[in-house]
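Hi U.,

Before I forget, here's the chain from the pilot set. I'm dumping it here mostly so it's searchable later in email.
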Amino acid sequence: MAGGRPIRPMNGLRSFFTDRIFLSFLSTLLFLVAISFLLSTKATTRPHPIQSLHFDLIRRQASDHAALVSAYAAYSRRLKIDASRQVRLFSNLASSLSELASRVGSDEDSLHPVEKEAKDRVKLARQLVSESKEAFDTQIKIQKLRDTIFSVNEQLHRARKLGDLSSQIAASSTPKSLHCLAMRLMEHRILHPEDALPSTSDSIASDPSLYHYAIFSENIIAVSVVVNSVIRNAADPSRHVFHVVTDPMYLPAMQVWFAKRPPTGGAYVDLHSTDEYTFLDASYSPVIRQMETGKQEISLLHYLRFYLPEIFPKLKRVILLEDDVVVQKDLAELWKVDLQGNVNGAVEMCFGGFRRYNRYLNFTNQVVKERFSPRACAWAYGVNVFDLQSWRIERCTEQFHQYQEMNEDGLLWRPGTVLPAGLMTFYTLTKPLEKSWHVMGLGYNPSISPEEIRKAAVLHFNGNMKPWLDVAMNQYKQLWTKYVDSDMEFLQLCNFGL
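Structure:
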């Protein structure tokens, strides 16, 4: 205030007024009440009219400016403006006004010095309010803008959550066209029992010299795309065997599809249903036990990947393919990859601090904290090379059972996904593959470079925007649809939009 320079607020304004300031304002109000009481008692002695006028004038000016100062003080507290000099000035002014209240007497001699000092204080209050008004108004506008931005961000956050939920519902639901396809295929199976794919001979299904793939799915058209894409890009299709395991309800439909559209080039499709694996019961598998008690909601098909040695007891190596992948190159070279004694060969998906173990596992749990590193790089399912001999030596299925039992109440990882169980089961037993073997994100990432896609051996439509859904990304969809047998009569009957 010295030199008549306007006072500018300090930066930020956090915790502008303390409780002491508010006590000072309370004292100011008590001062006004005291003056009113003195005036009312003075009326009994019939004071001189000029003296009463002085009292009224001082009271009104003190009351008006004290209220104005209090209002700005309230704004300062609400806005949390950090201007220490203004804090001191407002505090000192409130204290001065309160101190005046204690010095007001009932006679005219004591009134004159109080009047003069009160005028000085009122003048100071006017100057302070005038100099601070613009700054306070600006801060109020800034705060209103911040409130608006916060409100818009909250609305955006809610909209994104609703969008994610809608995408999850769309991804997990069976589209009408897919349901129609399965129903028509099963209807044909009932009417024409002779139209069914014959079983693959055991000598072929268990020949370790051939290339064996495991596909667990209920999606008929997705499985056909995986099989077609592998065969079309294979140098020697006759060496490829596809073991497709599905729900018993969809097995007849699968049999009709591959009877109508058998694999070309001498490749083999070996169809099975989950109920054929009698070793999967509640006494052996905690997954089955948790499903029977209602504590497990994921389909059994998702967990069959943890029982590959039992499903293929005569095989040494199996490649697991998800049903939402497309193969663009010959996978024969993948069979020659040296896993160096590891059980699992997979492409890692971490970079920087992104997608590491701490994203998938609960490191507040003592078991997780003691056995795993939060910075360990996570890998992905989609294309996985499994050495079944090393699997049996390391007893990985028993290890999976242990973790699954420990996570019955969701203490180790969030229920509803199988990747954390795989990360724990194959920890330190995974060989990183070259990244071009498995390019991910075509079901959620619109920014994958064309060059990366061109070089990829396998494209993975992981995410909610699956290529067979209406929400699929248009820039990627053709990569999948070119392997769909659009001449298949049942697709045309079901108006399958491609």
